[in-house]
Amino acid sequence: MTSTSTSKSNSQAGKDGYALAFDLGASSGRALIGRLVDGRMEVEELHRFSNDPVQIGDRLQWDILRLFHEIKQALLEAKHRGLTVTSLGIDSWAVDFGLIGRHGELLGNPYHYRDRQTDGIMERLFAEIPASEVFSRTGIQFLPFNSIFQLYALKQAGSPLLDGAVRFLMIPDLLRYFLTGEMHNEFSNATSTQLYNPVEGTWDRELLRRLGVAGELFGEPVQPGTFVGRLRDSLCEELDIDAVPVIAVAEHDTGSAVAAVPATERSFAYLSCGTWSLMGTEVDRPVLSPLTQQLNFTNEGGVNGTFRLLKNIMGLWLLQESRREWEREGQSHSFPDLVAMAEQAPAFATLIDPDDITFMPPGDMPSRIRDYCLKTGQQPPADTGAIVRCILESLALKYRYVFRKTEQLSGQSFTGLHMVGGGIHNTLLCQWTADSLGKPVWAGPAEGSGIGNLAVQMIAQGLLADIWEARSVIRESFPVAEYVPGDQAQWEAAYERFLQVTGLNE
Description:
Blueprint: E1 18-24, E2 28-37, E3 40-50, E4 54-56, E5 59-61, H1 64-80, E6 85-91, E7 97-101, H2 121-128, H3 131-138, H4 147-156, H5 160-164, E8 165-170, H6 171-180, H7 187-191, E9 196-197, E10 202-203, H8 205-211, E11 226-230, H9 233-239, E12 245-248, H10 253-259, E13 269-273, E14 277-283, H11 290-294, E15 298-301, E16 307-313, H12 317-328, H13 335-344, H14 365-375, H15 384-410, E17 417-420, H16 427-437, E18 441-443, H17 448-460, H18 467-477, E19 481-483, H19 489-502
Parallel strand pairs: 1-6, 13-17, 17-18
Antiparallel strand pairs: 1-2, 2-3, 4-5, 7-8, 9-10, 11-12, 13-14, 14-16, 15-16, 18-19
Helix pairs in contact: 10-17, 13-15, 15-16, 15-19, 17-18
């Protein structure tokens, strides 16, 4: 178990029981157990599993029943190890959902956000409802896979799923329903759908009406930290376990990751770094200015009724998908090997905008990177190391751009950047991010989403007073590496060229 010391008297109550966090990412899932002992949070991985989408014809879907099976395996593992589980919570990626029919059964596997059903749908919807109105009602950035566009695509296609549905449940909502038999929508994930009105504090019924989607599908969202049922009797009998209480945590994994940011100041910037990179800050109320829409930032729900002003960045998806292509070609490289190759490649030879729509779908990422370079008048990267360096340097430069825009929109000035998530294992990216920003980067914890999930459960159980006590405990319980910026001259020059290549305006 990972821990260091701090002193919080009320955390002694966690010694005899464990919170169980299911943290589901776009490529893998994990179950973590955690408890408080002498004011320290101790966390251990209980179970890890892959999360592979399934291509059937031209449709890409999630294997939701496999995920539920893996959740049951973790519950069995806890039983076999004699662990007393006092609560459990689930967080996952956002936007995707399942629809429940009149007899309480799931109507088809949830579609993957990279499925092509939403191609061209955003423009069709904006022909009926102006983009400015959608943003002013929801405060959410425009991404082609947002739930609003997925639902509109189903509606436009005449899908029978909507006709037979009685409830809309996002991925953690759906898995909780399988576990407990109770249906609840959770606040942080609800806001990500682009169907929630943060000013009114509920689903935007007028927007739903104009989309032709029944408002009755959506339950009143519950806040992170709400008890939302217990394991159903049939599951307890199947697994021979107790009826563990289930807590709705900050169920968008970024919401959980931000809950785990070990910040000492109320004003802080964060980067949740993984398949996606999400950078922003925590605010008390949504920022709904025209500039926020123009810069395509988003306002998603957080813990304690806060909002996360942030921007999605394509993230390490580019590297992961490049590696998959090289493996298909018979070249097997570990991620540390790829980083080592990048260090040997020439600096700033080619730059890309990681968020160019070209890089969104699965497939041959190295070829698309070379094509982007040709289109922007650059010499394409010559080998594997050059491609990896291009990806990592471009990400670090895009982080600088978004960091500055976050300061501008929030009216704050940040002393540095907190990085959490699995991407912090890429120490080269952490260092280049500090170099690019010209400010320190504090990296840790790596399992940010899972730890934030556990923290919200512990607050709900009364083991921690609030999110700031949780952050204090997290700061003292897990290592945080500091990266100090180095030579600025070459990064300044690279940033100017990055803006020119990408067409972004400072």
